[in-house]
Amino acid sequence: MATHRNIMKALYLVFAALLLGAPTQAQKLDLSPGTEQRIDSLLAIMTLEEKLGQLTVIAFSSEVTGPEGDTIDIRTALSKGHVGGIQNIRGVDRLRPLQEMVVNESRLGIPLIFPSDIIHGSEVVFPIPLAEASSWDLEAIERASRIAATEATAQGITMNFAPMADIARDPRWGRMMEGGGEDPFLTSHITAARVRGYQGDDLSDPSTMVGCVKHFAAYGAAEGGRDYNIVDMSERRLREVYLPPFESAVHAGVGSIMVSFNEINGVPASSNEFLLKDILRDEWGFNGFVIGDYTSVGELVEHGVAEDLSEAAQLAMNAGLDVDLVTQAFLHHIEHLMETGGVSVDRVDEAVRRMLRIKFALGLMDDPYRYLDKAREESTVYRQEYLDIARDMARKSIVLLKNDNNVLPLETTIGKLALVGPFIDNRIDPKGEWAFGGSHYEDIVTMLAGIQGKVSEDTQILYAKGCNTNDDSVEYFDEAMRIADQADVVVVGVGEPISMVGEGHSRTNLDLPGVQLDLLKELRKTGKPIIAILLSGRPLLLDWLEHNVEGIIQAWHLGHESGHAIADVLFGDYNPSGKLTVSFPLSVGQIPVYYSHKTTGRPFQEDLRWCSHYIDSPNTPLYPFGYGLSYSSFEYSEIYLSHSEISPSDTLTATVRIRNAGPYDGSEIVQLYIRDMKGSVTRPVKQLRGFEKIFLRSGEEQEVAFTITVEDLKFYDLNMDYVAEPGRYRVFIGKNSVDVREQLFALR
Ligand code: BGC
What we know:
Helices cover 31% and strands 17% of the residues. Strand 1, helix 4 and strand 2 (85-87) form a beta-alpha-beta unit. The longest helix is centred in the first third of the chain and has 18 residues, at 2-19.
């Protein structure tokens, strides 16, 4: 034990001079030369086994003080230097003993990194990412991510397996909930905001953690929406739709990237040199580390590209994957591969260097316990101010889909209010998938509690569950009908439980599960106004609701403050402002349905057989991308363009005036889309190229100006060069991807 301390001490002495006068911690990954030399010195004294240990992150769920078997295994692995990080355990009391073991009992004492999936809050649960995206509020999203990082780092977490930057255009895929929706431009901005939130300005600040953008790449394009399924797509689509959010994360300085489980055009992401070297390193200049997804390196065998775990390790390592998650393939096989020339020492050193850089950047190499401070954990985690911010984020995430005859907002003095449905008195589902590890779930505010806390003393609340989400029983319908019959308004809480959302939860059917729709149909018979509140992690099929209920509120899975936020919107304390970041299909048969499609050579025409259409359904979704109502109404002027023609070095300004013509103050998300009217390859009918969220008092008017540059017009041309082509462009500004004003301009 003395040995390792002496070595570490010697290293510090040798390089102390280099550190003097220079910042001891580098900004992001922009490390000082002194750090690289410290890494060189470490590499020079590390055994191969110790190096491979740094490239091994394991999942270890037992308490260190738990069953002896686990304790002995982990202790042995840590003392041999076989582990570089341990994922998904949180809390100073659990992590500190592990860090102590590695620091005190391994030869070099290189501290562990502790990654976790902090997808929407650590202890205070925020709305699921797809919900937060609906706010289009980058500052709010960054703040939410910052709070998640502040709490998680106080709980010992130094790396976050987030943000998920996967574009998703298929709601059958359960992981759509973890991302920003269908659009690359918006998702790129959101991804960068999250990276900034997690990593701050300086990774050496102990309230920051290294981000890990995932899943690289095209995971959201799984064939048939079935999780883990294959992806086969053109390089053009890959680059135009699926890669931009990852590039945006790299530009924002993300420290690590996780590969996806899927293959792309026959090559699994874990062994995909084109992705991991050509694009990530050579084109984008990424200098953090690449980590496998959970057992993805080992899965190369199941994919059928590797004979065994050894070949899997070789393929992954040589393709540019640096760190193995869970399979321990590198640890057990690379030594032999090096002996037989299958893997080079330089490649291993490069991967180790990338991991060590992150450990240096986090400040762990100088103080392994800087994230393991019990007092800080106690004073930082689960604070009321974070819950207040989570409430605001939740309100901003809600999307008002329908409001016939201004049935909403409700009066708090309403006489009798019936609350019906399996999501009304429910604190499990609002927390959303990927919220685990928190110990305050009993505080999740149910819709029932939120509404009860809002209405006047004279209001009578009647509650009936109505049905379950997972069976066909109609036994509670009568009770629901009885209370609905007595009420002035019926608020129905329906949707999708978390057990149907997230990883491994693909669906072929996007109906309300169980007999929820039957319940709604029964309630419709009462003739009472019905407000449906939808809790889900993806678009569900809402066609019947659109035609049969008076109000629809898309309330996703909103986290701790769910019930408060819903009540705020229901009773008008918050004027809804969210807009969908994913199209809501009319039917599963329409999928994929997204706004940024191409025209085809036979675009849709009413009553024409020989055009691209369905004989039994419109092409258009029920609710388009960018759609969402307000209690107010916003009027848009025509677009004023500063020029009708520009050269590549010019900028163009597109201006509209927007007036809040309704009775409530409120926010509007103003959206700018562009269409290239003719290209060397076909171009989408619209592409989001700008947005601004403005707040207008009732009656107030404001000008919104967007600057368009040649960068906004670029795409991959016939030769796959990223260029803007001269010609005509249409610019659209509006309240969603359909309801827009438009103008033409030309690029010389
Ligand atoms: C998921 C990743 C996650 C990892 C570690 C995998 O199953 O695909 O998104 O980060 O597990 O928990």
